[in-house]
Design goal:
Keywords: Membrane, Transmembrane, Transmembrane helix. It comes from Candidatus Colimorpha enterica. This is DUF3810 domain-containing protein. It holds the Pfam family DUF3810. This protein has two domains: 124 residues, no CATH class; 239 residues, no CATH class. It has 18 helices and five strands. The strands form two sheets. It has a three-stranded mixed beta sheet. α3 packs parallel to α4, α9 packs antiparallel against α14 and α13 packs across α14. The chain is elongated, with a radius of gyration of 23 Å. The termini are far apart. About 1% of the residues have low confidence.
């Protein structure tokens, strides 16, 4: 027993004070994670209030940087790893105490990421589902329901398509800058928060990835980085996808952790906008999810629907496929897909990357209830 006490005493002496603080916070985080898993009600409360506060502060602080801090850290990773390896080699030649001190510091860094995730984002995976929050009934959908939902979405697109500029025989054109798009989405989120009390009302900014073209090879159109609080988007993708993608990442920033739910909140928020292109982006993005599901369920109904679709929308989808062909099959996409699947599965989304497409169930349930 004395040996154990002596061991922990020496370990305590070798641990830097900042590391001790991070270890205590990590312990609190572990207790929180257990509480989240035991109580969806507590998860909802934490996500809406303490969690929202931490996410907002994080986003406001990193918002002072005109660039993506997360992307900068990623680009510096080779340098960071090299420096760490050199430091470890140097310390290994010193005393055991110095080596232990270095190891405890590295463990504290890992503890920081765990704490940051738990304090800001973890509760969203354990709370009540979005369909419960919206008061809709999510069930297995039929081909007929997919067809009817797609028709409703087409009607929505038709209402705004007359105000959209299309390149001849090609894609649509976003009529403003990315910064203006961000402002319009922030306005839409403020409006949405009035109807959906689980959405906190605050203004932030979307971050634009500088290395967007190389990022496209990973098939990643956007990413929310919880440790910096940034909603990052890949600006290399076609115009009509950008508002919806940005709204999706902003949904994560507001505590909607699950991918299908973030997709649907992005849709609802886009519809809250007065801007026709934002609305078009929302309608068009979910329409594509729905008709993809319809194609798998009933090819005849899919063909019939496509024959009724405005030729400008067909050109939009053809232009997207032409754009994406260059990036479709590559090792980077396989690796990023595997990493994303593993992460999502670890958070209870067993469908992995397929969970993004589960927005279809929510869309059908939403319009079925109207």
């Amino acid at each position: 027993m004395k040996k154990i006490k002596d061991f922990f005493k020496k370990l305590n002496e070798c641990t830097p004070k900042p590391a001790k603080v991070l270890f205590v916070l990590a312990l609190i985080s572990l207790i929180l994670k257990i509480a989240f898993s035991l109580s969806p009600v507590f998860s909802d409360f934490y996500n809406r209030y303490p969690g929202a506060f931490f996410r907002m502060i994080n986003a406001k602080l990193t918002g002072w940087f005109p660039f993506s801090l997360a992307e900068t850290i990623l680009m510096l990773m080779p340098l960071i790893v090299t420096v760490l390896v050199v430091m470890i080699i140097k310390v290994s030649k010193k005393t055991l105490r110095d080596m232990v001190k270095m190891m405890m510091s590295l463990l504290a860094a890992l503890a920081f990421f765990f704490t940051s995730f738990t304090f800001t984002f973890a509760a969203g995976y354990s709370g009540t589902s979005l369909d419960e929050k919206l008061g809709i009934s999510r069930q297995k959908v039929s081909a007929d329901e997919l067809y009817e939902t797609a028709k409703i979405l087409l009607d929505g697109i038709s209402e705004v398509s007359g105000q959209i500029e299309f390149r001849y025989g090609s894609s649509s054109v976003m009529p403003y800058t990315l910064d203006e798009m961000n402002r319009l989405l922030q306005d839409a989120y403020i409006e949405a928060s009035k109807d959906y009390s689980f959405l906190p009302a605050f203004r932030t900014r979307v971050k634009y990835v500088v290395m967007s073209e190389p990022m496209t090879y990973t098939h990643i159109s956007g990413v929310y980085t919880y440790f910096t609080g940034e909603s990052n988007i890949n600006t290399n993708f076609p115009d009509y996808t950008l508002p919806y993608t940005a709204a999706h990442e902003l949904a994560h920033q507001r505590g909607i952790s699950k991918e299908d739910e973030a997709n649907f909140i992005a849709f609802l928020v886009c519809l809250k906008s007065d801007d026709p292109y934002i609305r078009y982006s929302g309608f068009m993005s979910v329409y594509e999810y729905v008709i993809s599901a319809l194609y798998r369920a009933d090819k005849d109904k899919y063909t019939a629907l496509l024959s009724e679709t405005d030729s400008r929308l067909r050109y939009e989808m053809i232009a997207y496929n032409d754009f994406f062909e260059k990036y479709r099959d590559n090792v980077a996409a396989d690796i990023s897909g595997t990493i994303n699947d593993t992460y999502l599965a670890s958070q209870g989304q067993k469908e992995g990357s397929r969970s993004y497409g589960m927005v279809v169930d929510l869309a059908v349930a939403y319009y079925k209830g109207k």
